[in-house]
Design a protein that fits this description.
Helix content: 25-40%
Structural class: alpha/beta
Strand order of the largest sheet: 2-1-3-6-7-8
Shape: elongated
Distance between the termini: 96 Å
Number of helices: 35
Strand content: 5-15%
Length: 892
């Protein structure tokens, strides 16, 4: 209940010393009766003053109980440009000169409006406005008594219903004009042949104080939802009253607090029959636009409007999304106006369409719709062409504040009439209302049984508002949800939010970054592999845009991107469970970040992450910028008939050029063929990659390759064709290199006198088979020749020797081969054996230096020396022994 000392006062003063204004007593009586409803709700206090004299007026303004509470001073009676004709103590006319009255009224701090409903008061009204009175109503002519009565009655009727000043004035103005007629303004004058033929009353706002036009009685006493329809009870109250980062939806309408004034203003814009048909609703990321629409506005319109809440479909664009409201196949951009009005007539209700995330036409531009915004606003132009043909309903466009100038530009270009509502951050009063909201209604108090310690609401508000850049709404919800988690177990008795609990949470940190880190840590405990690989962060990053905003992604999109991970939906569920992702409005077939303000946090975390998935992603990105890309010489010839001759020639000329990075080639192709995604993708699928040579060679290092091999695609989305090509090329470049072999020996723990002197080798399980011709090693699964070649051979002759073994089916096998370096090094013992070699004596000692099949270069081959205890590479013209190997199993 509003404090009586803060209730605005409406001061009604009438004076008729000449006793010729027969409607004047009726005006006072009517206004008192009209304002009774507002008084009953304690939205205002009416102070009437009949036969007003100057002393009465000054006394009432100066009276302590009214001091700085008088919001409206209404005068009705005779007047002119410089005087109000009041009465003296004998009831005779007594002039009050504006020279003294104007500065006196301008000094009244609570005054919002001076309504001079007398003859020819326009000059006084302008002087009052110039003196700083926020809003003044005056007249340019001597006006008809009955019309002055009608105007005042309609104006205060709207005010009593809670409408803002400007809306009340427009309604009053239209009623009088309707009664007299647009072409008969002089009929409003007492002397019809004087003055200009125009509407005689004027509402004059003080320059710089135009916001007063939105002032209304309910908001003035913190009762902004007064007069708005009740929320239909269609859902049970939710179990948890605070949402973490999940937006408030229709089912949460009864526990949505803090936005009453904004709900009221938006509701009035929608319901005002003569208001502009297009509403531009914008605000900073994370301020709560979607929650206000879904939980605040829409439930109050369910019984009066056909309401459709849409978000831009990223595959269709704005116009196709909008047209989807109408029966399939019936609506097109050319006849949008026809189908809108037909839809309203069929349903006998105004149609309200809310199209949210309009900025994605810029942040997530569709190549197939190069003029998406132009097409959209051009389609709206016929619908909103003329006030006489406006639809009954409205269109609300929702978007982030950064893009407001762009949207305004299109509205101006297509001459679209619009209202503008900017949603600011929660202020101090609103934050306190959110904290205490569960005690605002008996049903809520009974359901949630929550007490809030007296100093806590103000303390929370002051802390959150201390940082002007803080995302107040989401941080507040995180805080309250955490407090609720601490007390929710008290089912049968009162729960309490205390200052001590809050201060403990505050020490832990209230920032969004802290919340993100906490939730990721919780996920790591439940699913460590998906977090430590970088996959969870990769999935979150996929739900952002290149411009640093949040993006919605369908489950189908996610499953396609992570097709190598069949249980990716499990991770999506876990991210939703910890309030980092949330489901779409229509179904769970779409997800988005739980809150817009998470987008920059996710992007920063992704950029700084040291998880393998992010590391290899950054490496790919860096290397592929240096790779040369060019069109294939045999680019699809079937395209030639589809292209103009000059376009085809330019494509042919492009084939001789190499571009550093695929993006530059893509841009060059777009300049030639334009925005044709299918054609571009077809051309880019046939590109040739140039990885360079010698010192200009581009490849991943061994460390990079091992990281990629270790994580594979488990920590990120599936590799694209260019990334796979880079990995394959790098392995070909590095495999058999000294660096690679050294790392292999160290990783396997093999002994090498120089490369890994601490290596212990492996524990073999040797067995002689085939009458001693072969040695089977159960530890490695390899079958070796027991003795090998009788003499040293060149590399070419070594391969000839192997071919002959297979031809002769040595030891009854025909799949002998040269060992790889890894296989040959697996024979190395950590110390010399009885044969004075670093190889088990089960083998013939003659073959102390053998060839392998691995080549670090075109004319070099790796060899293994059991007398020295290591490996090296030498020329193919060298001469070493052969010990053949095959992969096999023990003999039966």
């Amino acid at each position: 209940m509003p404090d009586k000392t803060n209730i605005p006062v409406i001061f009604l003063a009438i004076a008729d010393g000449q006793r010729d204004l027969r409607y004047l007593p009726k005006e006072l009586k009517a206004l008192k009766r009209i304002l009774e409803k507002a008084e009953e709700h304690r939205h205002c206090e009416v102070v009437p003053c009949t036969n007003a004299n100057l002393t009465d007026i000054f006394d009432i303004f100066e009276k302590q109980k009214y001091r700085n509470r008088i919001a409206i001073f209404h005068f009705a009676g005779h007047a002119n440009g410089f005087e109000l004709l009041l009465e003296d103590r004998n009831g005779k006319t007594k002039a009050a000169h504006s020279a003294g009255l104007i500065p006196f009224l301008a000094s009244q701090h609570g005054l919002k409006l001076v309504f001079l409903n007398g003859c020819a008061t326009e000059q006084q009204a302008r002087n009052l406005s110039n003196a700083g009175v926020p809003a003044v109503i005056g007249t340019s002519q001597n006006i008809q008594d009955d019309l002055a009565y009608d105007l005042a009655r309609r104006f205060y009727s709207g005010l009593a219903e809670g409408h803002p000043l400007e809306e009340c004035w427009k309604a009053a103005e239209k009623e009088v004009i309707t009664k007299v007629g647009v072409g008969n303004f002089r009929d409003m004058y007492r002397q019809k042949n004087t003055g200009q033929d125009r509407f005689p009353w004027h509402l004059i706002p003080c320059p710089g104080a135009e916001s007063v036009l939105k002032w209304n009685l309910p908001a003035a006493v913190d009762d902004p939802l007064f007069g708005l329809p009740e929320i239909p009870r269609t859902h049970n109250l939710p179990v948890a009253p605070f949402r973490f980062l999940t937006r408030y939806q229709r089912k949460d309408a009864e526990i949505f607090f803090g936005r009453g004034a904004d709900i009221r203003e938006l509701y009035q814009m929608v319901s005002e029959p003569h208001g502009e048909p297009l509403i531009l609703f914008h605000g900073q990321s994370g301020v709560g636009k979607s929650s206000l629409l879904e939980a605040g506005l829409l439930p109050r319109l369910e019984n009066s409007h056909q309401v459709h809440y849409l978000r831009r479909d990223p595959q269709k664009g704005l116009l196709e999304t909008l047209l989807g409201v109408f029966p399939q196949g019936k609506a097109s951009k050319g006849d949008l106006a026809i189908h809108w009005r037909a839809f309203e007539a069929e349903n006998d209700q105004p149609l309200l369409i809310i199209l949210d995330q309009v900025e994605e036409a810029i942040t997530r531009h569709l190549h197939k719709l190069p003029s998406e915004l132009d097409d959209f606003f051009a389609a709206l132009a016929p619908l909103f062409h003329s006030p006489q043909s406006y639809p009954r309903g409205k269109l609300i466009l929702g978007y982030r504040k950064e893009y407001h100038p762009d949207i305004q530009k299109y509205c101006a270009e297509y001459n679209l009439p619009c209202n503008d509502l900017f949603l600011a951050h929660l202020d101090r009063r609103a934050v306190m209302e959110v904290v205490t909201g569960l005690n605002s209604h008996p049903a809520l108090s009974k359901k949630y049984k929550l007490d809030v310690e007296e100093p806590l609401p103000a303390m929370i508000a002051d802390d959150l508002l201390a940082d002007p850049h803080s995302p107040v709404a989401p941080v507040l919800q995180i805080l309250l949800a955490k407090l609720w988690e601490q007390v929710k177990g008290n089912h049968s008795r009162q729960k309490s939010f205390t200052v001590a609990q809050y201060q403990a949470l505050r020490r832990e940190g209230l920032a969004m970054e802290t919340f993100f880190q906490e939730q990721m840590a919780a996920l790591e405990k439940e699913d460590p592999d998906r977090v430590r690989s970088g996959l969870a962060l990769d999935v979150l990053k996929f739900h952002t845009t290149p411009l640093g905003t949040a993006a919605s992604r369908s489950v189908a999109e996610v499953k396609k991107r992570y097709a190598h991970l069949p249980d990716i939906e499990t991770l999506l569920s876990r991210l939703k469970k910890i309030y980092l992702l949330s489901e779409g409005r229509e179904s769970n077939a779409e997800n988005s970040l739980a809150h817009d303000t998470l987008a920059p946090i996710v992007i920063n975390e992704y950029t700084d992450s040291d998880w393998p998935g992010q590391r290899i992603s950054r490496i790919f990105d860096l290397k592929l910028r240096e790779v040369g890309f060019r069109l294939s010489e045999d680019s699809p010839a079937q395209l030639k008939p589809l292209l103009a001759a000059d376009t085809w020639q330019r494509l042919k000329d492009l084939k001789v050029l190499t571009f550093r990075g695929k993006r530059r080639l893509s841009l060059a192709l777009q300049e030639i063929v334009g925005e044709q995604p299918r054609l571009l993708n077809l051309l880019l699928s046939e590109v040739k990659r140039d990885f360079g040579e010698d010192e200009n060679a581009i490849y991943l290092t061994l460390e990079d390759l091992k990281l990629a091999e270790k994580i594979g695609e488990q920590g990120m989305r599936a590799w694209n064709a260019d990334e796979k090509a880079l990995v394959n090329h790098s392995w070909q470049k590095l495999r058999n290199s000294d660096e690679w072999m050294t790392r292999m020996i160290q990783d396997k723990g093999y002994y090498d006198q120089y490369r890994n002197p601490d290596g212990k080798g492996i524990v073999h399980q040797y067995e002689l088979q085939a009458k001693g011709q072969v040695v089977f090693d159960a530890a490695s699964g390899l079958v070796w020749q027991q003795f090998g070649s009788d003499q040293t051979l060149s590399y070419d002759l070594a391969k000839t020797y192997i071919a002959q073994l297979n031809k002769d089916k040595y030891a009854n096998y025909n799949d002998w081969r040269l060992p790889t370096l890894q296989e040959a090094m697996s024979l190395m013992e950590a110390e010399k054996m009885g044969n004075n070699l670093y190889i088990n004596p089960v083998f013939d000692a003659k073959q102390f230096w053998i060839w392998t099949s691995d080549q670090p270069g075109a004319h070099l081959v790796w060899d293994v020396d059991f007398s020295f205890g290591g490996c090296d590479f030498s020329s193919i013209r060298g001469n070493w022994y052969v010990r053949a190997v095959r992969f096999g199993q023990s003999s039966p």
